Each structure stands twice: as C-alpha cells, then as structure tokens.
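Q: Could you predict the 3D structure of Bacillithiol system redox-active protein YtxJ?
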Amino acid sequence: MSTPWLPLTQPEQITDLAQASHEQPVLIFKHSTTCSISAAAKSKIERQWADSGLELPIYYLDLLRFRPLSAQVAEQFGIRHESPQLLVIQDGECVYDASHMGIRLADVKAVVK
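A: Sure. Here are the predicted structure tokens for Bacillithiol system redox-active protein YtxJ:
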C-alpha cells in the first residue's frame, strides 16, 4: 500500500485538521521538492508506511508552492519550521516533531499508541 498522502494546500485545512486531531491524531509532512534530504525522508516514509501499522491521515505540504502554510503551521502549533519535517497533531497540539533523518515512523507509532 502506498502512502495515502493528502495535499495540504489551503489555510482552512490547518484549522480543520487541528479540530479532527481531537478524534484521531493527524500527521503533517513538510517537504521541500528541491532538497535531496527531504526527498530521502519522503521516500523513507513511503517505504515504511505499509509496515508501520499506522492508519492515520498524513498531509503532504509542498513548502515551495505553499510557503505561507508552513509559517501558519509553525505559528499555530508553536514549532520551529524545518524541512523536511514530520509533525503529529493530537488534541489540537503538536505532540511529535522530527526533521531530516530523525524522522521515524516507529517513533510516531510510540507517540500515538
């Protein structure tokens, strides 16, 4: 099964996913399409997704096309912008924040239980 990426392209989606995170954790992957490290992190997530056991919504944010959304995510959830970056939003708050090669789906699974 491939990663079920959901495109994050509109400011109101951030509000909606924050609300939805009270029912179920939500993932946001911030990706720079011109960065080889970001491409490697995205590929790693895609390879590990099927075996991760995670059945959560995972949003894909193209930082180059939607830079203002990245700033909105950082401000709303009180995190420092990095790229690539994987966030877990749960109960309206960021409970996991990893970047670069520190992104591990096993860590996400441990956080969301």
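Q: Anything worth pointing out?
A: Residues 5-112 form a domain with the Glutaredoxin fold (CATH 3.40.30.10).
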